[in-house]
Amino acid sequence: MPELPEVETVRKALEKAVINKKIIDIYHGNKGLRFPFPYQFKQRVIGKTILKPRRIGKYCILPLNSKQKILLHLGMSGKVRILDKKPKLGNHDHMLINLEDEIYILLTDPRRFGFVDLIEGKERNNKFIKKLGPEALSSGFTGKYFYSLVKNKERNIKSILLDQSIVAGLGNIYVNEVLFITGISPKRKGKNISLRKCFNLVKNIKALLLSAIKEGGTTIKDHLQPDGKLGYFKIKLRVYGKTKSKCFICGFLIKEIKQLGRTSFYCGKCQS
DNA sequence: CACACAACCTGCGAGC
DNA sequence: TGCTCGCAGGTTGTGT
Fold first, then answer.
1. pLDDT tens digits along A233-251
2. Is A110 in the same domain as A75?
3. Is A3 a catalytic residue?
4. What is the DSSP letter of A254?
């Protein structure tokens, strides 16, 4: 599920519900997710207070009043729920943070590709954060910057955009969508993309992410429903998953290919 | 250095 | 109905 807009939706919900709340207790399984839970995680954060949640790319960061930060990545199937009473834990519930005032943060992740880390000290020194390029929505991610990285690359644009060390936050859905919007084939080599196209691409990436976040925002108010489900937005997809249906611009059939083991969807006429 | 690919897990839907 | 296969929104480590 989670690319940048989904993580932002989670961040906003957390900001609303858990800011300035003290951590009373933490449960986590021994099994671990993609990586084991931090060493003595519970002992290290219990009694601390959560400050304003932040996000970098697909990472959600919960700063504490101790200068520590809880780092959360949702992988492919991670979900966060905010509950107002203690839930009975299911098989795929891996972490439950019990806050004061009967607030609970539940992390569920069937595939266990997500993970949790605890940052002590400088965030930029964290092994995960320091690999990231500029955040997609930040002012540092510009057409000029992007062109400077892209212009010498043999790789195709699809893999460049998925590379979090070049730009942080895009995943398979949004890369497919934005390449369609910009009229660039996913097979096009980086070095064959003009400065002008890079400007367009960056502009379209930001606009697409912002509109997805905006749509996600409309359902956030439901975050304390009894079932605790966070409302994810449903953006209108133009090509993703649309194999063999008609391109809504030109009517050609949308094609599907594999790149880096992942599926790319594109219109052979509108994208080149 | 730049890039491709397998591996990590589980659930679900398509097809037989 | 029930089984097997392939595929899924991500990232790391290894190998060429």
1. 556 889 999 999 999 999 9
2. yes
3. yes
4. P
